[in-house]
Here is the input.
Amino acid sequence: VMTQSPATLSVSPGERATLSCRASQSVRSNLAWYQQKAGQAPRLLIYGASTRATGIPARFSGSGSGTEFTLTITSLQSEDFAVYFCQQYNNWPLTFGGGTRVEVK
Amino acid sequence: EVELVESGGGLVQPGGSLSLSCETSGFPFSSYWMHWVRQVPGRGLVWVSRINSDGSTTFYADSVKGRITISRDNAKNTLYLQMNSLRVEDTGVYFCARGRLVGPSWLDYWGQGALVTVSS
Here is the structure.
């Protein structure tokens, strides 16, 4: 089970956002992060817990291993307000966290 | 450019059947594992099924096992999902997504989704 916190994060543009994802058992570094905007498909941000996907800005960074993971967005831009999901791929079935909504404070 | 385009969604009564397709382009389809993921609008993501690159192995979430079949046609670069004995709880937007060349993985490209509504 993947658990994300907080459910909603209120942040002002230009500030830093820190999102957490916890696994009920170790998934090593087999963790990905996605961003989803309303009416759109999820977009891969991070895989391998800390590797940015192609085209993802450097203000997005991931860290952690085992059961505790963090997605950090430095200096939030207007286009970053969205829902973020974590996903483990250490074993089947693939499982996602419930999501964190990042909203404008 | 990698593209995945789902089709076939719609309204179906409980117990009914529906088939989804996912046409792909821009990458060597026959080399990649492919997946289906469901999302209830406004809610989280639930992985549904995956198929390996040549279609010889499949795997399903427990909630759909025995009712849903994933398949692919590598000559047509197309992924399919046949859904039978549909339940209200199968309602959601179904996304097809590209995995990696082997094994469980992140999903790097997604289609825009197809809405399936199961209701009487």
DSSP finds no helices and eleven strands in chain B. The CA atoms of residues 41 and 79 of chain B lie 23 Å apart.
